[in-house]
Specification:
The structure is a homotetramer of 147-residue chains. Chain A has a six-stranded antiparallel sheet. Chain A contains four helices and six strands. Chain A has one domain: Hotdog Thioesterase (Thiol Ester Dehydrase, Chain A, Roll), CATH 3.10.129.10. By secondary structure, chain A is of the alpha+beta class. The interface between A and B is large, with 37 and 37 residues. Strand 3 of chain A pairs antiparallel with strand 3 of chain B, so a sheet runs across the interface.
Chain lengths: 147, 147, 147, 147
């Protein structure tokens, strides 16, 4: 439907995207890993440990929202290049996040020259099961501030 | 306009709310503190350190979204009691977050029996200045899952 | 992923859903038609006429948001039955809406007992072309008010 | 906090804004009127008639979302000039809309050079009462497409 969806700009490789992720101290704190960055979309993984939980033993909603924010930003990077930020997003939590790994999968829905609308789904991997935990959609913009 | 706004249910005190926050391992990781929980609304503070930043030296958007998520949840708690979760929210980032402290201030916009719509603004305190960094609004629901 | 997605509650038929649509005076004003209401999802069509446009000759964003709101509500009805309302939604416009017909296609992303998270895409049919105009996601709740 | 908030660009007057509204066929269909367009914000009024209702006698959510979309756009116009569109918004419905008049009041939360984040509240006037019906926030961008 949009050429950017099937043929993202080739100038950001998985290696470069991983390097960007590694240069985010907060993502390093969380142990986040970028396991896909291609025309198929973006996949961001976060190991579920005690320290990212809330009071009931589930992954804190703020960690899930981090996964949405960051996977959307990287999806925007597929279309717009490495210098992008998330301008806004919306998230619906559908189930408490449990298990061993949080996986966010994001795609470009539509890309213009300076902004892209992206969507993502966040899953919890619990043993053999993969359950939907949240969905999000948002706008990613090419830098620079101020806009 | 709504009696819940001016007269929140009295059964959750600042002390109890702080105890809930302290029982969230992820909030402890971030050094988050609840500095207001009253009919005036909720205030959540997070010290800005290197480890919550992204690659350009700003606070990671995921931390700002955590501040939105959690301050909205606590605001919902003003109206609905301690057993609440954020069902969904939307955030607009308006400026890169810089400075010494991130402050999220949230209020109840409207409360029903089982859910509350809340809004929040997230500021960066940088020396004497306080700058708006993001705004958010969302729905908080009284537990329990499944809904 | 969710049994409700592939096997929606059977008690609302396309005919009943169309009857609900016909009992909405505003939808009648717009000439809206429900062309699908099945496990495949919901499809709502609105003929593009001069009177639903804005000042630049495009379909007014408010009509596109109506299409989002209403198709999401009907999608919620697939999972929750006929007595549902949209509690909240978020829409991203990706392209000015032009052409002969506006088509909103909505699906259930996740359904609980009393609420469903649904998503939709709104397309413009212009001759042979079908272009994405907007995407939306939101929460639909089973009545009754107050909640 | 932002000079644009207290001192919007003076080059769009209430008269010009009303002229823009009158040039929107869909807004004319709804009988919408712009009753404020100043540094205080924007006020858009829609008389509640049978033909804007849904099946239960309430104002259709799609009309409320139109009021959000359009009042946000005009609020963006306060900061960015007359050539603006709503890029995205999110709405929470808090109460069924009833009464004689729907009133949307929107303000600029933050404005940059090319986009503004705005928020609005939508009220129902029913006799002497004014009740909150919905709140929304969104991004308004200065034209031109494509972005």
């Amino acid at each position: 439907m949009n050429s950017r969806e099937t043929n993202p700009m080739p100038h950001v490789s998985l290696e470069i995207a991983q390097q960007v992720l590694r240069s985010q101290p907060f993502s390093q704190q969380l142990g986040a890993d970028l396991t896909r960055f291609s025309s198929e979309g973006v996949e961001l993984r976060i190991p579920i440990t005690e320290r990212i939980k809330q009071q009931n033993g589930f992954v804190h909603g703020g960690v899930v929202s981090y996964a949405a924010d960051n996977s959307l930003t990287f999806a925007g990077g597929l279309a717009l290049g490495a210098a992008v930020v998330t301008s806004e997003f919306k998230i619906n939590y559908v189930r408490p996040a449990l298990g061993q790994v949080l996986v966010a999968r994001a795609n470009v829905v539509h890309a213009g020259r300076t902004q892209a609308v992206c969507s993502c789904r966040i899953f919890c991997i619990d043993g053999e099961d993969e359950m939907l935990g949240a969905i999000a959609q948002g706008t990613i913009v090419a830098l620079s501030w101020p806009r």
